[in-house]
Amino acid sequence: AQSVAQPEDQVNVAEGNPLTVKCTYSVSGNPYLFWYVQYPNRGLQFLLKYITGDNLVKGSYGFEAEFNKSQTSFHLKKPSALVSDSALYVCAVRVGGYQKVTFGIGTKLQVIP
Amino acid sequence: EPEVTQTPSHQVTQMGQEVILRCVPISNHLYFYWYRQILGQKVEFLVSFYNNEISEKSEIFDDQFSVERPDGSNFTLKIRSTKLEDSAMYFCASSQTSGGANPYQETQYFGPGTRLLVL
Questions:
Q1: Is A34 on the interface with B (CB under 8 A)?
Q2: A22-42 burial code (b ≥16 CB/10 A, e <16)
Q3: pLDDT values of chain A reduced to their tens digit, one per residue, 113 residues
Q4: Of the candidates B56, B62, B59, which has an alpha carbon nearest to the alpha carbon of residue B95?
C-alpha cells in the first residue's frame, strides 16, 4: 500500500522568508511524487513533480522540491514567501505502472505580511 | 490554457436518489479519473478510465458507482442510490497518458469539483 504523510497541519512564515512544507511517502516500487495547491472551493492545481533525474525539481510560482530517496521525503520549498502563497499544499504519490494517486491530508501555509 | 470543467458546482439531493456528476476533460487527454474529498479528509482515488473501460478502481468504488464517457467530450460519474456518507467534493481529473512510455505526460489535471450534499 502507498501512503503520504504531511506531519504539519499548518506552517506559518513571514513574508519574504523561506518556506518549507514537509512530505514523506511510503510505496512499493518507484515513486512519482507531486505537489498540488488547493485554494478554498477550488480544485487541485499542479505545482511540480518528480519522476526521475535531478533530485531538485523546479515548478510553478518559484516553488521547488527536493526528492530524498534515503529519507523517503519530498519537501516543498520556496526561497521567499509571498502573502499570495497562502493556501493548502497537498503532497501526492503514484507508483510507476499504476494510475491511482494517493494524496496527503494537506498542510495549510499561512504567510504573514 | 485548457482546463477540466465540472458541472454542477453544487448538488443537493435526497438519500436514495440517483445523481450524475459531469466533467469535460482536457480535449487531447485520454485518461480520466474521479476522486472524492470528504470534508476535512484527504482526497481519495475512486476510479480511472481509459479506452471506454475502467482501468483501476478503489474499494470505495462499489456497485453504486458507475462511470461513462457518453460522447467525445463528457465523462460522468453516476451514483445510483445516494447515501448520507456520499456527501463530499467530487473531483474529476484527466491526463494525456498514464505514465507508461512517457511519464512526463501523465500529470493529472483537476477540475474545480462538484460539492455533493446528500440529505
A1: yes
A2: bbbbebeeebbbbbbbbeeee
A3: 789 999 999 999 999 999 999 999 999 888 999 999 998 777 889 999 998 888 999 998 999 999 999 999 999 999 999 999 999 999 999 887 777 889 999 999 999 99
A4: B56
- Judging contacts by C-beta atoms under 8 Å, the chain B residues touching residue A53 are none
Between A41, A43, A101, which is nearest B111 by CB? Answer: A43
Q: Determine the residue of chain A that is closest to B98 in CA distance.
A: A99
For chain A, positions 76-95, list CB contacts with chain B under 8 A. Answer: 90, 92, 94
Cα(A89)–Cα(A23) distance, rounded to whole angstroms?
10
A103, B106: Cβ pair inside 8 Å?
no
Q: State which amino acid sits at residue A59.
A: G
DSSP secondary structure, B20-38, as one string: EEEEE--TT--EEEEEEE-
